[in-house]
Write a structure and sequence with these properties.
By secondary structure, the chain is mainly β. Helices cover 0% and strands 46% of the residues. A hairpin with a 2-residue loop joins strand 5 and strand 6.
Length: 122
Amino acid sequence: MAGTIVASTINNDTGVFSTNNAYSGIAKAWVYFLPNAGTPSIQTSFNVSSITYNAAGNYTANFTTAMSNATYAAIGSSDYPGVWNEVNSGTRTTSALQFYTPLSTNANPTNYGRCSVVIFSA
């Protein structure tokens, strides 16, 4: 028999069931934002509470619910085709990811419009 279950909250024996940490292999966080000359404007997101502007083309995505560890996979894109990098010496924690949108790899970060980031974690 097939059916549909609709619920506003699902609880388990330890409290509220966190759907973004319930399954492996799915996106645990994503965000689409506009840099707006240094003031990021989130257009739509899942499990991202805010985007911090650190410097030109340098941002931090702050997670609403932390990842289980800091070894998650991160992918991203911006208006400049094919270029998106995680900041090598930047923040990569269970609660945030720092990244930049440079003109070329590791050089000349710029505030490109229409940026997206997706996080996958166990």
